[in-house]
Amino acid sequence: MAERVRVRDIDEDEGSRLLRIIRRGTGSVVTWRRAQMVLLSAQGMPVAKIAEVTFTSADRVRDVIHNFNADGFDSLYPKYAGGRARTFSLPERREKIKKIAKSKPAEHGLPFSTWSLAKLADFLVAEGVVDDISHEGLRVLLREEGVSFQRIKTWKTSRDPDCAAKKARVEHLYAIADGEVIPEDGEPEVVFCLDEFGPLNLQPHPGRQWAERGGRHKDPDREPRRRRRATYNRPHGVRHLFAAYDLAKDKLYGHIKKTKNRSKFLEFCRYLRTLYPPTVRLSIVCDNYSPHLTTKRCRRVADWAEANNVEIAYTPTNSSWLNRIEAQFTALRYFTLDGTDHASHKEQGSMIRRYIIWRNRHADDRRLRAVVDRANVA
């Protein structure tokens, strides 16, 4: 059995050739990977360890070793036999390239954490997806398919035991609001997404501005650039924006309060209730912030909802991204707060209220839609 899983004796020239393939990347990714397995086996490493090092299965390692013992270096290079190779139409080929680019190399048995254009191009050729493709051509194709090289962001997994049920309910409500599902009897006809934005401090916010260029080519007579004020003490307190997004009407509503607690939350919910007749059932999507919840000691939220034909739908813990109002907050910050330094809460509140009026009148604004669509996850 040991003879079946060990590579035959290789001479010095063959060993040097294997090293060149591995070190210089000669040939495709598949060739490089097979050469690595053969060299590790020649050095006495067992099959199980080779499979662990090369991120593949032990059976795959045995196949590579058997083929090398039988056919030598020819076995390292991919062969396509067994009839005519499958031909891809142009849309199928583009979709296949996009699918492979979005996958992890480890899913294909390769010991890489991410695809480079060179490795991806070699793999596509080895798999027969394309006969040949340049790195720039691959870059252009991926860009046209909406795929770009992006930084990986952090993600906090929800530990809510009812995560699946809550997520499914919220997505069902969104399907009703989007017209994809007809609500059954007793289901909400109108869906609001509610959350608090803040705390709103009186502080200079980072942003951008148009200004004359500086440096060596600056105009010596130009006025100095506007600068952000540096603050260390903020004795003016904070404010909180209670906001709700009506999915059906594509409208944003907001009230600014000094505090955020269960009483203020119910006060804002009562305002939302007045926007529709009492016979119209509403659903309010919100997170698990304590003032939104019904507890054993305080059932005011549940009692109010039952008495006013309202359903309170909670997103799972650590899943506030499911709330569509988060994208509206991104737009509010971008258009209203970035680059500002308000002197008073009255001035800041007035700016936010005027933005909400503008946003509801220009819901189809191209730049607004771009910011919201980019931030929207749910």
Care to describe what's here?
With 378 residues, the chain is of the alpha/beta class. Helix content is 41%, strand content 10%. It has 13 helices and five strands. It has helices at 12-24, 29-42, 47-53, 58-71, 90-102, 117-126, 135-144, 163-177, 262-273, 300-307, 325-337, 345-361, 366-375, and strands spanning 190-200, 239-246, 251-257, 282-286, 310-314. A hairpin with a 4-residue loop joins strand 2 and strand 3. The longest helix has 17 residues, at 345-361. The radius of gyration is 30 Å and the shape is elongated. It starts with 11 loop residues before the first helix and ends with a helix. The mean pLDDT is 85.
The description of the largest β-sheet is:
5 strands, mixed
Count of alpha/pi helices: 13
Low-pLDDT sequence parts? none
β-strand amount: 5-15%
Work out the radius of gyration.
30 Å
The spatial strand order of the largest sheet comes to 3-2-1-4-5
* Series of secondary-structure elements, N-terminal to C-terminal: HHHHHHHHEEEHEHEHHH
The averaged pLDDT comes out at 85
Structural class label: alpha/beta
Annotation, overall tally of beta strands = 5
Give the fraction of residues assigned to helices: 40-55%
Outline type: elongated
Q: Tell me the distance between the termini.
A: 55 Å
